[in-house]
Specification:
It is a single chain. The protein folds into four domains: 91 residues, no CATH class; 144 residues, YojJ-like (1, CATH 3.40.1700.10; 91 residues, RNA Polymerase Alpha Subunit, Chain A, domain 2 (Beta Complex), CATH 2.170.120.30; 79 residues, RNA Polymerase Alpha Subunit, Chain A, domain 2 (Beta Complex). The chain contains twelve helices and 22 strands. The strands form five sheets. The chain has a seven-stranded mixed sheet with strand order 2-4-3-1-5-6-7, with helices on both faces. Strands 9, 12, 14, 17, 18 and 21 form a six-stranded mixed sheet that branches. The chain has a four-stranded mixed sheet with strand order 11-8-10-13, with no helix packed on it.
Length: 472
Amino acid sequence: MISTIRIQDIADILIMTFLLYQLYSWFRGTRAMQVLLGLGVVTLIYFATRFLDLYMTSWVLQELGTVLIILIIVVFQTEIRQTLYRFSLLRHILDSHQETQHSQFQDIAETLFRMASNRTGALIVFQGNESLHDLMTNGIVIDSEISPQMLESIFYDGAPFHDGAALINNGRIEKAACHLPLSVSPDVPQHLGTRHRAALGLSERSDAVIVAISEERGEVSLVTAGTLRRMENPAELIIALDELLRSGTESPRITIRQRFFSNLLPKVSLLLGVCVFWGLITTRQGQITTVTAPIQLHGIPEGLVLLRTHPEDVTVQIKAMSSLVPPPSKLDLTAEIDASGITEGTTSIRVNQANINAPSGMIITSVSPSGIRVSAEKKLRKRIPVKVTLKGRLPSGRPSLQVTSEPASVEIEGPASQVSQIVSVATEDIDASRLKRGEEYLKNLRLPDKQVTVLRDTTVTIKLSDRGRGQR
């Protein structure tokens, strides 16, 4: 197995591990991460039930998976948009360049601590590289310069904007009275109010930096990436904002070794999981199995009737590309062939891989034979009488009685060579000695040939009646 591993397979494993680790890093500690873990457990159960041939359980989980995908898209549409935005390689080019905010941190920090000493609650959001338009709602556009007077007037107790959050972007106060998504993490301390839960909720979904002021405790807290830190003085807040929101200066260099060995446990766990999953997928890769597929013709011209097909099935060689697909020996394959081009007589039709629908994860390698012969004849339709087949004799001394059928004649259709020779169609045998006048008996018609059909229900009504009242 190891000797057959290609460079492409190693790249496949590493790429998938990297993508899963990115999702883990972004959603760690959030409600979305808990849902992803739950889906992972359900997926493992599904594959286990398929491996153990637990058909009902695997079918239920498969049908449930379709519904869950739709629910996830509806419930986590904001997180999905943020994930796609983070994956975008052009977002740094398309986003507007963040202006330097260093010179304003001094006034902001002093103002915020002065508000905290006065027990004035506040929530200030510094936008990072990621857009917050989908996460911050119901905001009022202000677009003003940052000043102590403006910040104090926005969060003054009793002011219209007091309960919302202010957004600072590109060195200006862009909006006020914004609503933020609340954190649903069970690890949030119970003593934190709605303001701090909103700050944590936004930080879990973006790279924004949020400052929250508690009016009950008079504390200033800095919230980033789902974590909350209490700031002791303006100097500490200035240093933190300078490190998190610096622009135009070089970020501290992180060596390749540091990147590789940081968070080593989740990285190794994801790598092992991807390797196991890759092994499951490629266990039967390349295995070739031979199966028989019956031929089904469709599109036969209206004026022709099919006589025979030779051969009636084809031999198919199918290659499995994954162990997650059913074994080829359990497949129910059919060769769907278009017969709209056949004519009267014998017509040859080619058969190839395109005539057989292989399920996902399987490839048709060959079909034998490569052609079939189809014999067809003109279709003929005519009306013929129904002949009642009696077994035994009618009761003696009743010459005025006769046996009749309803209908007295039917239309048949089939190959012209056969239909032209048929003069009547007989019913199933009926015991004449047990017939009673006025009673009805249901009998089926005996078709003279399997390729000849009756153009109505094959059941007829037979009764014994007075002569002259019925039809022979």
